[in-house]
Design brief:
The complex is a heterodimer. By secondary structure, chain A is α/β, with parallel strands linked by helices. Helix content of chain A is about 40%, strand content about 15%. Chain A folds into 2 domains: about 190 residues, 3-Layer(aba) Sandwich (D-Maltodextrin-Binding Protein, domain 2), CATH 3.40.190.10; about 200 residues, 3-Layer(aba) Sandwich (D-Maltodextrin-Binding Protein, domain 2). The longest helix of chain A has 18 residues. Chain B has a two-stranded antiparallel ribbon with strand order 1-4. In chain B, strands 2-3 form a two-stranded antiparallel ribbon. In chain B, helix 10 packs across helix 11 and helix 13 packs antiparallel against helix 14. Chain B is globular and about 90 Å long. The chains are: A alpha/beta, B mainly alpha. The interface between A and B is large, with 72 and 61 residues.
């Protein structure tokens, strides 16, 4: 997922894994299986487990999303297995370059849990292996010293931030993944979902320029007042480091970053960061966050035999054995996962009813328009209503070109 | 050289230029007048995604591509004339801003905001690069022989570094509590956030570009200085010309063609300013024309990209380069026809 996606320029963290069959795999794979996925920790674990079957060539590339649509459209497809998330699955499904997996799941997927099966229009199109969400992380020592209860709402987050600021115990009370572009748009999506906002009308025209949209922007601006003034360049890694170096007390950060807080090699706040549910906002009941999944897809443009073989290998990659060996690498959906304290925030956010990220072609267009347009409001160049109107206009232009409108 | 030999020498290079420069340019030109739109249907689709307790199923309206007989998504390409240019330029909004004589409103339009930065960046760095380059060249020229080698090596280092890497290094020195920001904060005894507003970012970018390109000007000027006629210099000294007068009336006229050459190259390069935007991730505050093209061309998560608008933006950038080079090219041409070169 995007959480550990660094600057596009550090792309191409590629590695090729292959090895002979070992006891860890149930069968000896004889035909080549190629995979292309993101390169973060969880994918390293999965592709290493796949490689134990032999003849696996796994490419781990943070720029995978730019390669996948064309690589899977080739005939035969350049890869058998793809690693995708909610939004990156969309172009592959749209182009028909990944196959429905119902037959293969019936034959070889007995160990899969029902909630791992991503169904689109009734057909299983992907097998999810993990989930991720942004949720509240806070310094338990600071909050208890100042007698602040765990914030449940963004209004309480603001009140707590004010107290922490007054006490002057950290440089900045809040951190936020407000980097202009994808991150900033994701923050708006989270907040707007907290207001139960709808992004589109039934004809897919935009519908964000309303009271909820303005309120979401105003809340983001209120939060930004307690952040490092350089918040518009602050991505997930930056916020994680601010936490680890004790510069901030609270942030709404990705679950995949939780384990880093207790990594004694780089963190000065081991054991001091509590993971809790994403806050709600304005008296609403939906957490202001979105649920993301990462999972596996199989190419269409390969023979059925190759697809079956690739599916079997992929199942070895996301089996219980792999999860037991890499329990803390992600919030796994796979059987055998033992949730630890680091996963508590993601669990609480999901069980409080956070909605899945509404991935679709139009949502990606909206996400881009939001990412480019919100900064002008936060810097004070535009008012909230004008910023939202301009974002809607940008979306409309792009959507017409993409055949959505 | 007879015509046949000339053709044999030039032929391969002309063929390469046609293939790798003219052809792509013509393609981009064509694309800027056409928009390719996927043909889609709107359908209601149920999507079930994982949660912990169970799945969340959402039914919503989605667009689905229409496939042809061979199973490929169908698209239609239509001629839009200057439509994509208009979407980039937004002339109506720009005219409205000008009618109100509101600079602020004009700067809310991406293209004009990017143009403002690109032009100021180009025009401010040009004299600085020429000045710093000449200063280093003169300093090295006057240094003792033993010192020349090491000084030249050190002066060239910034030019050798890959632009993006150089920009990122400067970024890490200044972002957050980077070592130089921390140093400045200590010296000025106040809190600084250099990445929090446009003007500090712009100064960092100008600084970076001059640091990076001045060595190029230096090398060219230094080579030029080696050809200055020593007799003329000596007679100027005898005539009582000061150091500055020798520079002003002997050296600079001598290396003037090189100044024009360095200016041409620098104007072309800096009008395409891009590495600074990415390196300093300044897009919230400052964007350039080249970044605008890049942003339109980058696919989003679902693979959407605006090729037509990106092509229009690229053609506009090229037009800008031609316009900004025109005065210098005209001068060079005049010198050429008068036989001065």
């Amino acid at each position: 997922m995007r959480t550990i996606l660094k600057t596009a320029l550090f792309a191409g963290a590629m590695s090729l894994l292959s090895g002979g069959a070992s006891a860890a795999c149930d069968f000896n794979n004889t035909s080549t299986v190629k995979s292309l996925s993101a390169g973060f920790e969880a994918w390293k674990a999965v592709t290493s487990a796949m490689a134990e079957c032999g003849n696996v060539e796994a490419e781990l590339d943070q720029e995978f999303r730019k390669k996948q649509p064309d690589a899977f459209a080739a005939s035969p497809s350049l890869y058998h297995v793809g690693g995708v998330a909610n939004s990156t699955a969309v172009p592959l499904i749209d182009a028909g370059t990944i196959r429905p997996l119902d037959d293969l799941v019936a034959k070889h997927g007995g160990q899969l849990k029902p909630n791992q099966l991503v169904r689109i229009d009734g057909k299983i199109m992907a097998i999810a292996m993990m989930v991720n969400a942004q949720h509240l992380m806070y310094r338990n020592d600071i909050l208890s010293d100042l007698g602040i209860a765990e914030p449940q709402t963004y209004e309480q987050v603001l009140a707590a931030a004010e107290k922490i600021k007054a006490a002057g115990v950290v440089d900045y009370p809040l951190g936020g993944t407000f980097k202009s572009g994808w991150n900033l748009a994701e923050e708006f999506v989270n907040m707007y979902m907290g207001y139960d906002g709808e992004f589109f009308n039934s004809d897919l025209s935009p519908s964000i320029n309303n009271a909820n949209g303005v309120a979401a922007l105003e809340m983001m601006k209120a939060l930004s007042a307690y952040m490092d003034p350089e918040y518009l360049v602050s991505d997930s890694t930056y916020v994680q480091q601010q936490f680890q170096q004790g510069k901030i007390a609270m942030a709404n950060l990705w679950a995949s970053r939780a384990a880093a807080m207790d990594n004694a090699d780089e963190s000065q706040v081991v054991g001091k960061v509590t993971m809790s549910a994403a806050p709600t906002v304005a008296g609403g009941s939906t957490p202001a966050s979105t649920l993301w999944w990462d999972g596996i897809v199989i190419a269409s443009n390969i023979s059925d035999a190759d697809a079956e073989n690739a599916f079997k290998v992929a199942m070895e990659g996301i089996d219980t054995e792999m999860v037991k060996a890499n329990n803390d690498a992600a919030v796994w959906l796979v059987d055998g996962y033992e949730p630890t304290a680091t996963a508590a925030g993601a669990f609480a956010t999901a069980s409080n009813g956070a909605k899945p990220y509404p991935a679709s072609k139009q949502m990606s267009l909206m996400h881009t328009a939001l990412g480019n347009g919100i900064a002008a409001f936060l810097t004070g160049e535009k008012g909230a209503a004008q910023a939202l109107a301009d974002i809607e206009a940008d979306y409309t232009t792009a959507a017409k070109e993409a055949g959505v409108l | 050289m007879n015509k046949k030999t000339f053709a044999a020498f030039v032929g391969p290079s002309v063929a390469m230029m046609l293939l790798f420069i003219a052809l792509p340019l013509a393609t981009v030109f064509m694309q800027s007048f056409h928009v390719t739109i996927p043909v889609t249907d709107t359908v209601e689709i149920e999507t079930c995604t994982p949660g912990f307790a169970g799945q969340t199923c959402v039914t919503k309206i989605e667009t689905r591509p229409v496939f042809d007989a061979a199973g490929n998504p169908t698209t239609t390409t239509k001629f839009v004339g200057f439509g994509s240019y208009q979407k980039v330029l937004r002339l109506g909004d720009a005219a409205a801003a000008l009618a109100k004589s509101s600079w602020h409103d004009l700067m809310l339009i991406d293209f004009w905001k990017a143009l403002r930065f690109t032009v100021t960046f180009t025009l401010i760095t040009l004299p600085l690069v020429l000045g710093v380059g000449l200063a280093i060249a003169l300093a090295v020229n006057n240094a003792t022989k033993a010192m020349k080698g090491p000084i030249i090596f050190v002066s060239l280092l910034p030019f050798i570094i890959t632009p993006v890497i150089g920009a990122l290094s400067i970024r890490w020195l200044f972002i957050g509590d980077g070592i130089l920001t921390a140093g400045l904060e200590w010296y000025l005894e106040r809190d600084l956030s250099l990445f929090a507003q446009a003007w500090t970012l712009e100064i960092l970018m100008l600084f970076y570009r001059v640091w990076h390109v001045a060595p190029f000007a230096f090398v060219v000027f230094y080579a030029g200085l080696q050809t200055v006629n020593q007799d003329t210099i000596e007679s100027a000294i005898i005539d009582g010309a000061s150091r500055f007068e020798r520079l002003r009336f002997v050296i600079i006229p001598h290396i003037m063609p090189l100044v024009v050459f360095v200016s041409l190259i620098h104007l072309m390069d800096s009008y395409r300013v891009f590495e600074e935007i990415v390196g300093f991730s300044s897009q919230a505050h400052v964007i350039s024309l080249q970044w605008l093209t890049y942003d339109l061309l980058s696919p989003d998560d679902s693979g959407n990209r605006s090729i037509s608008r990106a092509s229009a933006s690229a053609m506009l950038t090229m037009l800008g380069i031609v316009l900004i080079l025109a005065p210098l090219l005209r001068r060079t041409w005049q010198d050429f026809t008068k036989g001065r070169i």
